[in-house]
């Protein structure tokens, strides 16, 4: 089975995913890295030169390819839930887990990183709040949810391992 991590930017999908994969001896795949490999440009350049719709098309293509494989921890990008087709592709071979954090914590975790074009605006915290509101419903596509605000990366990893051990997916 696969374990796919979804959630807003800065909720820890990439860092938690890496550590989880190491613990479980699974392959780690970061969809953002796969997009960069597929397209050949860094994410900010893709957004600046071809726009968000084009980025979403590459994201969908890569999600379909990776979702069809097995025994991976998949860290998605925060916008993967914008297309139902992506969620279906991630669910076909495993479990999808949502990571959450408060807007303030997300802001603190992302403010020193210029690799997220959607947050390169005058008021990133306001943008975080409005995007969270826009995406609220789509993030409800899984019952497995973890609020990471007060947790360390290791504690989040442990919680995911507990969810996976108790889930219907464990035999797969
Ligand atoms: N639970 C956590 N507690 C503190 N810092 C965290 C936690 N999870 C992630 N971080 C930090 O927040 C930043 C963004 O994490 P990242 O894994 O890139 O998030 P995402 O992939 O969801 O955008 C990184 O600097 C990471 O070390
Ligand atoms: O939320 C989003 O729309 C995005 C999240 C980013 O990934 P992270 O969630 O890993 O930051 C990356 O895919 C891109 O900048 C768009
Ligand atoms: Mg990431």
UniProtKB/TrEMBL annotation:
Positions of substrate binding: 32, 56, 78, 135
Cofactor note: Binds 1 Mg(2+) ion per subunit.
Residues holding Mg(2+): 14
Catalytic activity: shikimate + ATP = 3-phosphoshikimate + ADP + H(+)
Gene Ontology MF terms in the entry: ATP binding; magnesium ion binding; shikimate kinase activity
Cofactor: Mg(2+)
InterPro entries: P-loop_NTPase, Shikimate/glucono_kinase, Shikimate_kinase/TSH1
GO BP of this protein: amino acid biosynthetic process; aromatic amino acid family biosynthetic process; chorismate biosynthetic process
SUPFAM superfamilies in the cross-refs: P-loop containing nucleoside triphosphate hydrolases
Compartment(s) of residence: Cytoplasm
Keyword Metal-binding: yes
Reported function: Catalyzes the specific phosphorylation of the 3-hydroxyl group of shikimic acid using ATP as a cosubstrate.
Assembly: Monomer.
Record-given protein name: Shikimate kinase
Organism lineage string: Bacteria, Bacillati, Bacillota, Clostridia, Halanaerobiales
């Amino acid at each position: 089975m696969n374990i796919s991590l979804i959630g807003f930017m800065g909720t820890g999908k990439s860092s938690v995913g890496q550590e989880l994969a190491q613990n479980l001896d699974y392959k780690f795949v970061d969809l953002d890295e796969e997009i960069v490999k597929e397209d050949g440009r860094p994410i900010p350049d893709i957004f600046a030169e071809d726009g968000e719709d084009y980025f979403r098309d590459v994201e969908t293509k890569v999600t379909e390819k990776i979702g069809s494989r097995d025994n991976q921890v998949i860290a998605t990008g925060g916008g993967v839930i914008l297309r139902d087709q992506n969620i279906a592709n991630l669910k076909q071979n495993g479990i999808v887990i949502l990571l959450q954090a408060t807007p303030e914590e997300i802001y603190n975790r992302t403010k020193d990183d210029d690799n997220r074009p959607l947050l390169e605006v005058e008021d990133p915290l306001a943008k975080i709040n409005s995007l969270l509101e826009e995406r609220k419903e789509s993030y409800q596509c899984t019952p497995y949810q973890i609020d990471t605000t007060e947790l360390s990366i290791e504690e989040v990893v442990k919680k995911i391992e507990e969810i996976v051990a108790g889930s219907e997916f464990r035999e797969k």
